[in-house]
Amino acid sequence: MAVEGLVNLRSSFGPKETTERLKAELQASGLTVFAQIDHAAGAAGVGLELRPTEVVVFGNAKGGTPLMQASQTAGIDLPLKALIWQDAAGDTWLSYNDPAWIAQRHGVTDRTKTVTANMSTMLGAVAKAVTSPAA
């Protein structure tokens, strides 16, 4: 399942535990969790079925503002989001937009290399901590 700009990691945990681990890791990393959206609950509310599918919206002004200073349209992709979802085989996944892809989408790749590299490193570390069992 390759989608341009999307990073996907298989989680060693179920959807609920992955979501809770993500929120805890984001907060421990100094990021703000702004919202949590449970798409499966929304579907159930209108009589439809959907495997576990949740979005966590998070970020901080220090990381996102430089992208928006370079191109205010980057605000459509910020704050950052992570999708926790379960596939048909029962595997749980954590997906997020690659910050470099966001910069490329808004035409500011050259002006935001350091910022996007830092964001990518941070997101990669958070995602690995969330999806991998402790050593």
Number of DSSP E strands: 5
Oligomer: single chain
String of helices and strands: EHEHEHEEHH
Strand order, largest beta sheet = 1-5-4-3-2
Radius of gyration: 15 Å
CATH topology: TATA-Binding Protein
Level-1 CATH class name: Alpha Beta
Strand content: 15-25%
Poorly predicted runs are none
CATH architectural group? 2-Layer Sandwich
Largest sheet: 5 strands, antiparallel
The named CATH superfamily: TT1751-like domain
Q: Kindly state the mean pLDDT as a whole number?
A: 96
Structural class: alpha+beta
Task: Specify the helix fraction band.
Answer: 40-55%
Distance between the termini: 28 Å
Large-scale geometry: globular
In DSSP terms (H or I, runs of 4 or more residues), the helix count works out at 5
Task: Provide the domain count.
Answer: 1
Domain DUF302: 37-99
Protein name: DUF302 domain-containing protein
Pfam family, one: DUF302
Organism: Bradyrhizobium macuxiense
